[in-house]
Specification:
Layout: H1 9-14, H2 55-69, H3 78-84, H4 88-100, H5 104-116, H6 124-136, H7 140-152, H8 160-172, H9 176-188, H10 196-208, H11 212-224, H12 232-244, H13 248-260, H14 268-280, H15 284-296, H16 304-316, H17 322-327, H18 333-345, H19 358-361
Helix pairs in contact: 2-3, 3-4, 4-5, 5-6, 6-7, 7-8, 8-9, 9-10, 10-11, 11-12, 12-13, 13-14, 14-15, 15-16, 16-18
């Protein structure tokens, strides 16, 4: 059965929304967002074929791949086509003569190959050298990649001031991940002057390009009025878009907004679905909150055994909750043992039972958040994509 809100007043207080970014309290600066398409969204490599393709077919394949993807290319690019097919040494051999003639796109590609260790030994120092050449030539992706190396002290001495300058160079050239990282620097206010208004403007640009991290952070700024006029409705929408784009932290916060009815109509069942999605992805906060809802039957059928399993999973990651323990004090010993066994085998089902999965229950579908086209993900549409990670 499903309990009403009035029957479980304690749960609402336990689901309070975490403090969001505000101008009075800048958020800590996270590591710089990496350029490029997430691995799951990267173009798949063609399957192996025992019959070697003809030279014409190889050239056409390279042209088809590079036409839409290669940053800054004004002509079809065989080096990047080889890169996309996983032929990294071929890509390197094709790019080197061009790089020696000052082709900045080729310099960037070589830097990426060395940074990722694709077909060669990983070498951040060599990568930095190539990115330096390309960034001096105005390549916005190279400037971004070099900024991340300076930010982390990889291949170059750590120099966050230099990283900030390079992020600005890349952002000024229109690269959206760089705009996002520059916005974070303005929030932190250490290596650039603190400026929440500039941060919000840059964050909005990156969010409008479909970058999930920017959608989430811009949404939190709107919720609290950090550098912008407060707008809970629009803030909730941005966080919802980030949730749909797969950002787990946004899924947790969007679930909480739905639970509280903050910026969106209150929808307990939708909140449950989003908490469950993030819990299935391994987020301990979501696991804890989903367990609470299961323990009281709010927005979902009451199930103490499932609640105990999610509690155990959250505990495994260091999140203990005395309030949840109180909600589960009446669970029978046999059910508790089954729950802990399920947690030990999760995400697989234990030999003695099967555990419901997200695929069985269905993915969240929230009507008030418009669908986001696949092309509007973080690395698509608004800015040239970086070479994808090695599959």
């Amino acid at each position: 059965m499903k309990a009403s809100l009035a029957a479980v007043p304690a749960v609402l207080a336990l689901m309070s929304l975490p403090a969001l970014a505000a101008s009075a309290a800048p958020v800590p600066l996270p590591p710089p967002m990496r350029a490029g398409t997430p691995a799951a969204a990267a173009p798949a490599a063609p399957p192996a074929d025992t019959t070697p393709p003809s030279p014409d077919a190889q050239q056409q394949d390279a042209q088809d791949i590079s036409h839409d993807v290669f940053a800054g290319a004004s002509r079809e690019d065989d080096a990047y086509g080889a890169y996309q097919r996983g032929e990294y040494l071929t890509a390197l051999a094709l790019a080197l003569p061009r790089a020696q003639k000052g082709d900045h796109a080729a310099e960037t590609l070589i830097g990426e190959i060395y940074e990722q260790g694709l077909g060669v030994g990983e070498d951040d120092k060599k990568a930095a050298g190539w990115f330096e050449l390309a960034s001096k030539g105005g390549d916005m992706l190279a400037a971004f990649e070099l900024a991340t190396l300076y930010q982390n002290g990889s291949g170059v001495p750590q120099d966050k001031q230099r990283a900030a300058e390079l992020f600005k160079q890349s952002a000024d050239a229109g690269y959206m991940p760089a705009k996002y990282n520059l916005a974070l620097l303005y929030i932190e206010g250490v290596y650039v002057p603190p400026d929440m208004v500039k941060a919000a403007a840059l964050m909005k640009e990156a969010a409008d390009s479909g970058l999930a991290e920017a959608q989430y952070d811009y949404g939190t700024m709107l919720m609290e009025g950090g550098g912008v006029v407060p707008d809970e409705k629009q803030g909730a929408k941005e966080i919802g878009l980030a949730a749909q784009n797969g950002l787990i932290a946004a899924q947790v916060d969007y679930a909480t907004l739905l639970y509280l009815g903050k910026g969106v109509p209150r929808d307990l069942e939708a909140a449950v679905r989003w908490y469950r999605t993030a819990a299935e992805a391994g987020n301990p906060v979501a696991q804890n909150r989903y367990a609470k809802l299961l323990a009281v039957g709010e927005g979902v059928d009451l199930d103490l055994q499932q609640a105990a399993m999610w509690r155990s999973l959250a505990r495994r990651q260091g999140l203990s909750d005395p309030e949840l323990d109180k909600l589960l004090v009446s669970i029978p010993k046999s059910a508790l043992e089954k729950a802990e066994e399920a947690a030990r085998f999760w995400p697989s089902a234990p030999p003695s039972a099967s555990t419901p999965t997200l695929a069985q229950n269905g993915a969240p579908a929230v009507a008030d958040v418009p669908a986001v086209p696949a092309a509007s993900t973080a690395a698509a549409g608004a800015a040239p994509a970086a070479p994808p990670q090695n599959p």
